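Lecture notes, part 5. Sequence design as translation. It can be helpful to think of inverse folding as translation between two languages: the language of shapes and the language of residues. The source text, in structure tokens, appears below.
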């Protein structure tokens, strides 16, 4: 047990949160000595809306779905780059697919040492299969094909999970977000298997299901997240509770718990969303995850005659517009999202083959339910998620004022785009808050960092997340300032990492000036942050970015305000598809179909790094649990007040480099 971590965590809590956590601990102790009982009812009633006959979906997407379901039958289900064997009727739900370590399924859930990888493995790899996404995908395949093999295998895995995870026993009963996600999977599996003859015996008339349903709901109604933990976890918890208590009736307290969940959802949709539509965690992967959860809950309420508030629907519309404005299309035509902050590739519901990624199905769902604007990108193909979920209720067209053109400024979230109308060149600059609530759990030390695409090709990138638990050195690196396209001062992060989901300091960023952001020959913004005021000497970092839309040139100027000279490191991280040749103070970049040239500040000494491990430097994580080497250029030196670091990039730049002529490589 790390006492220091607990003390640091305690300092981020309010008195009200400490009181709530004390209450939670008392409930957990009381439950330890109780025997979970099924509700005193013989059955429950399925109230969930029946899916109408679906209109045509893209045949390629349907074939991908059926192929994926066939893979599940023979044991292929990817979990963060590893395989969870789905072939047996009774899979091992407690084994970490990465390390092979198996947690004890008989332990009281709140006694499971889930932070200890030696005893349970890496907990996220254990939890992920029990979100039961593969079960909803099997149910979707049955719904589309009528093939009973898919329905029977889905039923076998649900029964296996219920047998192997009795209430309050084992690792799968200690996290509210996982419990909420399972409730959504239960409801949607029931819905998609609606025409299967055995569906009522599997759900409504099954004592094992009644026991699970009641205790999933009771857990969430009693122990939902509060205070500094009330981020996307809370929305997942109450979305699951609302969806389950709306779709199934007859359990004790069902109506009261549905009202509780609806009230929290309506409040959190506003609390966790900036007025400009972006999620307050400032981790874009969670923006999509939360939007998906809220849309599913809102549609369930509409279908059952229990609609969420108009204010909640307005927030959903703002979130959808913000989603569309932040998506770009890569040269292959795939929708790509910013990689700001943490991301773990979470889906609210999976009924499409996962290889398609979350963005196209989510955008199509939002478009179908809320109405797309003319400037929205078009989804790549037809999504089963959009067709099924949107069929539950009428389309909600928000009549509040919506942007007539794609916005480039998200003032509250601190995100600004400098880009051409056709995205020939686009820079997304982060000058917003560090994160959400006292812990800023999913934020990174990335103030004033930017991501750059040229012709849809990611060139300067945010390296991503890679891991949450189990590998602290890698967790620290991917969240660090040096892992982002910004300036490190004094060899320190802009904010102090106090744990894998905890920051003990948080920088404040602001805009000094901006002009020409929406149109004109040049777009310019000057931003700053105070994360290094804690150093001795104190320092402020300023950055100006200027995009010449006509020549497709980007100029980046960095300077500091400090009482004395300070050591600095300026980092530029490149997408793995970009070849980089460093020749003196010029970097020549090339990729399939494009090239660019960067002139680097001559004040600094530049070095090329790729795939270093001690310490980590030069890595890219395209998906959670995966990492691959990539190129980073680091300029090191010293800066005094009044000095400027000038970096200039021009798209094109002549003949593409074929090697690394003149390259000086220095170990990290």
């Amino acid at each position: 047990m790390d006492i220091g971590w607990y003390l640091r965590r305690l300092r981020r809590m309010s008195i009200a949160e400490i009181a709530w956590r004390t209450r939670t601990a008392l409930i957990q102790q009381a439950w330890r000595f109780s025997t979970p009982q099924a509700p005193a009812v013989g059955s429950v009633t399925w109230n969930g809306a029946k899916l109408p006959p679906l209109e045509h979906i893209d045949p390629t997407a349907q074939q991908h779905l059926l192929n994926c379901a066939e893979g599940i039958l023979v044991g292929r289900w990817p979990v963060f780059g590893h395989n969870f064997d789905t072939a047996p009727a009774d899979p091992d739900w407690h084994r970490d697919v990465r390390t092979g370590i198996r947690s004890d399924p008989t332990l009281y859930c709140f006694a499971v040492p889930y932070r200890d990888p030696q005893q349970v493995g890496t907990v996220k790899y254990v939890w992920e299969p029990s979100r039961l996404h593969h079960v909803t995908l099997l149910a979707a395949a049955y719904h589309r094909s009528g093939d009973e093999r898919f329905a029977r295998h889905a039923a076998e895995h649900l029964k296996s999970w219920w047998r192997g995870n009795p209430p309050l026993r084992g690792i799968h009963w200690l996290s509210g977000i996982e419990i909420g996600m399972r409730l959504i999977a239960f409801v949607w599996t029931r819905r998609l298997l609606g025409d299967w003859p055995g569906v009522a015996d599997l759900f409504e008339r099954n004592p094992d299901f009644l026991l699970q349903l009641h205790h999933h709901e009771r857990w969430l109604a009693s122990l939902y997240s509060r205070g500094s933990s009330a981020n996307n976890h809370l929305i997942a918890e109450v979305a699951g509770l609302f969806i389950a208590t709306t779709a199934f009736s007859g359990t004790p307290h069902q109506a009261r718990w549905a009202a509780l969940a609806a009230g929290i959802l309506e409040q959190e949709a506003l609390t966790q969303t900036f007025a400009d539509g972006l999620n307050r965690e400032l981790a874009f992967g969670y923006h999509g995850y939360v939007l998906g959860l809220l849309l599913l809950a809102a549609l369930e309420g509409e279908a059952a005659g229990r609609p969420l508030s108009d204010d909640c629907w307005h927030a959903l519309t703002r979130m959808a517009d913000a989603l569309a404005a932040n998506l770009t299309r890569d040269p292959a035509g795939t929708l790509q999202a910013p990689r700001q902050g943490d991301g773990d590739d979470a889906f609210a519901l999976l009924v499409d083959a996962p290889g398609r990624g979350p963005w196209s199905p989510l955008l199509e769902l939002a478009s179908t339910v809320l109405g797309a604007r003319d400037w929205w990108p078009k989804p790549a193909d037809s999504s089963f998620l959009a067709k099924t979920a949107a069929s539950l209720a009428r389309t909600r067209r928000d009549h509040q004022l919506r942007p007539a053109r794609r916005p480039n400024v998200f003032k509250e979230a601190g995100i600004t785009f400098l880009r051409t109308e056709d995205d020939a060149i686009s820079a997304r600059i982060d000058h917003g808050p560090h994160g959400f609530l006292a812990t800023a759990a999913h934020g990174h030390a990335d103030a004033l960092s930017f991501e750059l695409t040229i012709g849809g090709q990611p060139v300067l990138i945010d390296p991503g997340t890679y891991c949450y638990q189990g590998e602290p050195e890698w967790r620290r690196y991917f969240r660090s300032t040096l892992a982002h396209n910004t300036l490190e001062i004094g060899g320190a992060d802009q904010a102090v990492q106090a744990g894998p989901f905890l920051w003990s300091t948080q920088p404040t960023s602001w805009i000094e000036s901006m002009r020409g952001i929406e149109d004109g020959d040049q777009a310019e913004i000057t931003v700053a942050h105070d994360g290094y005021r804690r150093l001795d000497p104190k320092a402020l970092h300023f950055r100006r970015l200027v995009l010449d839309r006509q020549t497709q040139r980007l100029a980046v100027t960095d300077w500091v305000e400090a009482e004395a000279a300070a050591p600095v490191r300026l980092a530029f991280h490149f997408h793995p598809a970009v070849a980089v040749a460093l020749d003196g103070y010029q970097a020549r970049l090339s990729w399939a179909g494009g090239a660019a040239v960067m002139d680097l500040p001559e004040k600094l000494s530049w070095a090329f790094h790729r795939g270093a491990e001690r310490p980590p430097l030069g890595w890219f994580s395209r998906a959670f649990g995966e990492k691959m080497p990539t190129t980073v250029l680091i300029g090191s030196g010293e800066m005094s007040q009044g000095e400027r670091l000038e970096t200039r990039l021009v798209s094109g730049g002549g003949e593409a480099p074929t090697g690394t002529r003149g390259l000086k490589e220095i170990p990290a």
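The translated text above is only one of many valid answers, since several sequences can fold into similar shapes. Residues 654-668 have pLDDT under 50 and may be disordered.
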